[in-house]
Fold each of these.
Amino acid sequence: MHFSEQTLFGIFKACCLVFLFALLSGTAKVQADPGQNDFPEFPIIRNNVDFWEKIYSNYSLNTAVIHDQNDLTKIYEVVTLVDQDLPEARRINNSHLETIKEKYTQILLRLSAGHPPETRDEKRVANMFQGPSTHRRMQFAAENIRAQNGQKERFLEGTVRSTKYINRIKQIFHEYGLPADLAYLPHVESSFNYEAYSKCGAAGIWQFTRSTGKQYMRIDRHVDERRDPLISTRAAAKLLKKNYEALGSWPLALTAYNYGTSGMVRAVQSHGSYENIFRNYEEGYFKFASRNFYSEFLAARKVAKELAGNHARRPETSDIQRLSSPRGSADGDTATRSIKAVPAVKNTAVSISHSAAKGKKHPGSEPRLRLYTVKNGDTATSIADSANISVQQLCRENNLNAKAILRTGQSLRIPKQASDTQEKETLQSTSANKKRSAAATTTIKNLLHTLSENTLGPLKDTPKKTLLVAA
C-alpha cells in the first residue's frame, strides 16, 4: 500500500495531536490536587492544624496542654508551669506534668471499666466520649495522653528573626521552581535560630543532620554550613525538590522532610494517598511528630502571615544576625564571614523571655560571640592574645584540640569579654539572683504539697486550668 506525501503528512499531524492531547491530559491529572493548591488542608487534618495554630499563637511558653495525641480536639487540662529560669524548674515541671497525665489515665481507665463519673473532672472527660464503643475508646485514650508546651513567645521571636531572611529564602525557592511558602518551614524546625541544635544533632534553621547535610553542604571540623541560613536554604531546596519528584505532592514531600524520603515512598506504596497515610500508617518511626509535621507547617505558615499582616510592633533591631558581603560570591550564598548579633527584642506585642535553643540572650545584654576569619600568619596564641582570652577558651569554643591546625580563611568563634563595669554588674546581679532563687526554691517546695488543690474552679466544656504560681 502506497501513500502520497500529503497523506503521510496528515497521518503524522494526527499522531502529534493525539500525543499532545495525552500529554495535556496527564498534566491535568497531576495538577488536579485538592483545591488545586500546593498545600491543601485536608478535612482529616483540620483539627490538627487548629491545635497547632493555638500552640503557636495562644498558649504561652509557661503553659502545657494535656491532650489526646490521636484526637487533638480532646484537651483535658491546661497547666501553668513554674518559670523556666527558677532553680530545678525542669524537674518540678516534669514531675507535675507526669502527675497530671497519670490522673487522667486513671480517670479514663475507671470510666472505661463502666464506673459512672462522680467528680467534676470525670464528668468533663466522660462528655468528651460520646457515641458508639465509648468504653473501648476510653481505654485506648488512656494510653495516649500527651503534654505539649505552648510556643507563643518563641514563635513571635522567630517571626521577628525571620525578617532578615524570609524574602531571600523565598527568592531561592523561586529559583529552584518551588513554592515560595516553603520559606515558612523553619518556624517549625528552629524558629529561624541559626544556632539551634536538636538532641539528635540536627543544626541550623533547617535542622539538617550531619549525614543528610553532607550530601548538600560542607560539614567538617572546620566549617559547618548548616549554620549559614542561605547556604542551608539552597540545601533544603534541593532536598525538598528531590522529595517532591519522588512523591508527587507537597503534603507527602514535607512529611518526608521529617520522616525520610525512602520511608514515605514505602508508606505511599502501602497506603496510597496522604489522607490514608495520616489515618492508618504506623510503621517504623512514623509517630506523633511525623504524622503532625505537615499540619504544623500549615499552622506556622498561617500564624506567621497573620503576624506580618497585622503589622505587629516590630523593633528596628529585629535582625538577629548580619551577613557581611562574602568574597568571591555574586549573590551572597556562601559561608557566613561575619556575624553580628543585635540586642534582644524589645517593645514587641508580647515580651520575649525565652530564646529557642542555645543562643539565649537577655534584654540589654551584649553579644557573647563574634566570628574571626583566620589570616595568613595567624596562630592560636596570637588570635587569643588579640581577643584578650586564653588559648584554652579559644579551643573550647571552637571544639579544637591541641593538635588542630588553623588554616587561612577558617572562621573561629571568639568569646567577647565584658568590661570591668559590666563584669561587676553581672556579679552583683548574679548574687541577687542566687538569693531570690534560694527563697523561690523554698516557696516552690511548699507549693508542691498543695499543687493539686490550686485550680480555677469548675469548668464545663473547656479544659480545667491548673495554676502553679512561683513567688
Amino acid sequence: MTHNKNHHIEAALQILASLGLPRAQQNERSALCLLALLNLTPGKAWAKAENPLMGITPIMNWAREHYDKDYAPNTRETVRRQTMHQFVDAGLALYNPDKPDRPVNSPKAVYQIEPAALAVLHTFGTPKWHDNLTAYLAERETLAASYAKEREQNLIPIEIAPGKQISLSPGEHSELIRAIIEDFAARFAPGSVLVYAGDTGDKWGYFDAALLAELGVKVDSHGKMPDVVLHYTARNWLLLVESVTSHGPVDGKRHAELANLFAGSSAGLVYVTAFPNRTIMARYLPEIAWETEVWVADAQSHLIHFNGERFLGPYNAP
C-alpha cells in the first residue's frame, strides 16, 4: 500500500514538473493537492481520475485520510496561497467554476481540475502521454489566458475619477466599497480624491501612498487601514470610512486605533461607518462611537450623525 502511495506522489511531482509549474510548487504539498483534485486514491489508475469540486479544508482532509498526511489547520493559507493560487494561474485548476461571482474570501470557495488538463492526465503512463502533453502545453497559454479573462470579468469595476477605474474582487464588501466611492463621496465630499480602498482579494486594492505621506500620515503594515480613505480637498478633511458587511463599525476601540494611526494628519479627520442597509446597521447600533457619521447605501442621500455640536466635520482630539 505504501508503495502505491509513494508511487502516486512521485508521479504527481513528475507531472507538476512536466507542466512547467514553478519550482516552489514542485513539492509534496502540491502533489497531494493535485491528487486530491483528481480523487486519485492509492492504487487507483490515472485513467480513472475524476474532477470533484473541492475546497481547501476538504483537500487537506483528503490528504490525511488517503495519504496519512496530517496538515495543521493553520496550513490552510499556505495551501491556498502557495499551491492553489499557482494551479489556477497555470490554468491547471478552475476557481469557483460552479459560481464564478462567489466572494473571494467565501468559506464555500472551491477548485476543480480544468477539463483539458484532466483529459491529458487520464493518459499519464501510457504511450499517448507524451504527444498529448505536448499538444496540451501548446494550447495551454491560450486556455490560461481565457480563464484569466473570465476571472477579470467577475471583478467589480469602480470609477475613482473621471475615466480612471480600479477593480476589486467580487462580493458584497466590494459592492459597498463601490457605493462609498461612487455615491457617498459624490454627495457628501464632492471632488474628493481616493487615497485608499481595501480589497478582500489582496487587501491593498488601491493606495495612493504619496498623497497620504503628503498629508503627514505614516502607515506601517501593522496599522489596520479603514476600508476607504478619501481626501475631501475643498475642506482638507480625511474621511475614514469603515464598510460594514461582516466586521464591526467605527466603535470606541476602532475610533482610538484610527485616531492613533492618523495622528500626524494635517487634514481634519472625519470617521464614517457605511452599511448596505438599515437592517445591518440596527445590529451594530449599540457599538457605534459618538462623534462619528453613519451612511446607509440604500438611503444614499441621508447621513446619520452621532451627536456633536455640528453636522459633518472633524472633531479636535480631546
Amino acid sequence: MNDQLKKPNTYTSEFRESSIKLALESDQPIAQTTRDLGVNPNTIHTWINKYSKSKMAVTRTNEHIYDENKRLKKELAIMTQERDLLKKATVYFAKEIV
C-alpha cells in the first residue's frame, strides 16, 4: 500500500545528462547501467529519446539559421546596390534642376 502512495523520484538535469552519457558510452548494457544507478530502465530510455530529439532539433535549427543568414546577406547586397543607385540618380537629377 505504501508503494502505491510513493512519490515519484525527481532527478536533476545534471544527473539525467550524466546518466545518459554513461548509458550510451559505457561498454555495459543500458539495463545494467540503470540497475547500477537505481533508475527505472524506461526512465533512462525516455531521457535518451528526448536527448536525441533535442540534438536533432538543434542541428536542424543551425542549418536553418545558416540558410537564412546566407539569404539575408544576398538581400543586403541587393539593397545596398539599389540605395547607391538611388543616391547617384538623386545627385544627377538635382544637378539638372539647378
Amino acid sequence: MTAIAPEIFKAYDIRGIVDKSLTTATAAAIGRALGSAARQKNIASIVIGRDGRLSGPALAKALGEGIRAAGVDVIDIGLAPTPVIYFAAHELGTQSCVAVTGSHNPPDYNGFKMVLGGQTLYGAMIQDLYRRITSADFPKGGRGKITTADVRQAYLERIVGDVKLARPMKLVVDCGNGVAGAFAPELFRRMGCEVIELFCAVDGTFPNHHPDPSKPENLADVRRVLRETDAELGLAFDGDGDRLGVVTKDGEIIYPDRQLMLFAADVLSRNPGAQIIYDVKCSRWVAESIRYQGGRPLMWNTGHALIKTKLKETGAALAGEMSGHMFFKERWYGFDDGLYAGARLLEIVSRWPDAAWPLQNLPNALATPELNLKMQEGEPHALVAKLQTAGKFPTARELITIDGVRAEYADGFGLARASNTTPVIVLRFEADNEAALARIQAEFKAALEAVWPGLDVSYSHGH
C-alpha cells in the first residue's frame, strides 16, 4: 500500500510537491479512488487533460491507469487549459473530468481539479477519496479502456461562433508560459484581433515570470508592451487558464471585482432581474452596481468549487471571484474560464472607440491588496471562529460571517478570513477615503489581537 500524504487533499482540489507529497504512485491511487466513486454514480468514463507542467504527462498517465483499474474508461485530451478540460466533459457527454494542474503554484507543484457527474469535488468529497485509498475501498471489476480525443477546434468554434466583436482590436496577450498559450492567441485572432504574444510558448519552468495575473508584478511586461506599441488592451492568464488579468492602455489594472461589474451590466441587459454571485472579497460597489442595473446580488464564500456549486443551486446567470475566476452561465456552461471571460470582455469593450473608456469608468474604491497574516497550520480557522463569536467591531453596522468575518461600515468594509489553501489569515480593506481606511484597519487590528493575544498584526503592504 502506497503511503499517502493526507495534507495534499485540500479544500477545493488535490495539490502537492512532485516526487515528494505527490508521486505517480499517489496519482494512481487517487485515480483508483476517483474511478471507484465514479462507478458508484454509474459514470462510465472520465476526461483527463493536463497543463504545461513538466510532471504533467507522468502524473496524467498514472492517474489514468488508476481510473481504468477501477473499471472506468479514460478519454485523454492531452495538453489543455483547465476550462477546456471542463468543456470536454460537456462536449464528450461524460460530465466528469480531471484537470492535472498546479494552477498558479511554483513549478515543482502539481495537482488535480476534479468533476464527477457535473459536481465539482470539494471538502468532504475530496476527503472521501483519501478515506477510500487508506481503507482500500475499491470495487472489483473489469478494466476500463483508454481513448484520446481532441476538443480544441470544437472549443474555439463554440466561442468564435457566439462571441462577436463590434470592431477589430489589437491586444497584448501574456500567458506567462502557462498552457493558455496553446489556445489564447489563436482564439483572439479568430475573433478578429491582432495579437502581440508575450510568453505564449508553453514551458513548465515558467522562465519569464510566474503565471499569476492577480499579482501586479506579473503584469509589468504587459504594461511595458502597451506603452511601447499601439495595442489598446492587455490580457493575462494564469498557469492553467481559468483566471483573467486585464490591463488598459495607460497601464491601469482592472481588478476582477470591477471586471465583474462590467460583465454583470452586460448580462443584465439581456436578462433583467437575474441573480449574480460574488465572493466575500469583492468591493461593496459590486452589489451596488448589480442592484443599479436591476439585478439581484448574492455574496458567497470564496473558492471556485463553492461558487460553482452555488451557481448551479441558484440558477444565477453569472458569478465572479476577486481571485479572477469568472463563471458565465448565460451563453456558456457555468464553469470558470479565463479565455472565455477574455472573449466576453472584448465583445463589450469593442463597442467603444476607446476600449479603456468602459473599464476606467467602472466604480472604483480605495482598497488594499490582499494582505496575509502567516500562522501555523490549523490556527487561521481557530482564530476566525473566535473572531466570529467574540470579535468586537464597535463602528460596524453589519457583520457577515458566511466566510470569515466581513464587517460592513457606512464608509467601507474590512474582511478577515482563513485561506483554505495555505495557513494564512486573508485580510482586505476598502473605504471611501484614507482616514476611513485607517480607522477600519485599526478596528480589525484591535479585534484580531484581542481574540488571539500575541498575534502581530501589521499591514505591511499599505495600499
